[in-house]
């Protein structure tokens, strides 16, 4: 099924790429958050999308396994907005809290649907925002 999806994207099913997709699947089985890190053009996005389509295809075929569901990806470049826009901020002029894009995305991902939701922060890793995300990626899930 994965090889069919790889062909659908116009790619070749190279063993190294297949092993990376399998490794990503194995990580989502045991973790609730993870990072795909690598150089520009290294195949991170294709890895993610091949796995997304493979899981949906397996679901359509009636094959049962962990996370064999359709996937909806919600994507954001955290470097394109301010920290207040990303996480939310208190407006000192109106004395009101304004939700950030991330909290709005999380709220949207909780909509009752059998599909899995992946919130993807696609952009260069920055020490400041990744430190703030550290609690989200923490194993305690709190």
UniProtKB/TrEMBL annotation:
Task: Give an example GO molecular function.
Answer: ATP binding
GO cellular component, alphabetical, reads: dynein complex
Q: Boundaries of each Dynein heavy chain hydrolytic ATP-binding dynein motor region domain copy?
A: 2-45
List the GO biological process terms.
Answer: microtubule-based movement
Listed Pfam families: AAA_6 (PF12774)
Query: PANTHER family from the entry?
Result: DYNEIN AXONEMAL HEAVY CHAIN 1, DYNEIN HEAVY CHAIN 1, AXONEMAL-LIKE PROTEIN
The protein's name is Dynein heavy chain hydrolytic ATP-binding dynein motor region domain-containing protein
Natural source organism: Spumella elongata
Q: List the lineage, top down.
A: Eukaryota, Sar, Stramenopiles, Ochrophyta, Chrysophyceae
């Amino acid at each position: 099924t994965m090889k069919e999806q790889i062909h659908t994207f116009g790619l070749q099913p190279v063993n190294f790429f297949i092993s990376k997709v399998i490794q990503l699947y194995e990580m989502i089985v045991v973790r609730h958050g993870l990072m795909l890190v690598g150089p520009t053009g290294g195949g991170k996005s294709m890895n993610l999308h091949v796995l997304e389509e493979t899981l949906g295809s397996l679901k359509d075929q009636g094959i049962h396994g962990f996370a064999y569901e359709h996937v909806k990806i919600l994507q954001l470049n955290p470097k394109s907005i301010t920290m207040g826009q990303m996480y939310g901020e208190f407006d000192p002029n109106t004395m009101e809290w304004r939700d950030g894009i991330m909290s709005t995305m999380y709220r949207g991902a909780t909509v009752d649907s059998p599909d899995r939701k992946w919130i993807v922060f696609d952009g260069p890793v920055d020490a400041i925002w990744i430190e703030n995300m550290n609690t989200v990626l923490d194993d305690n899930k709190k």
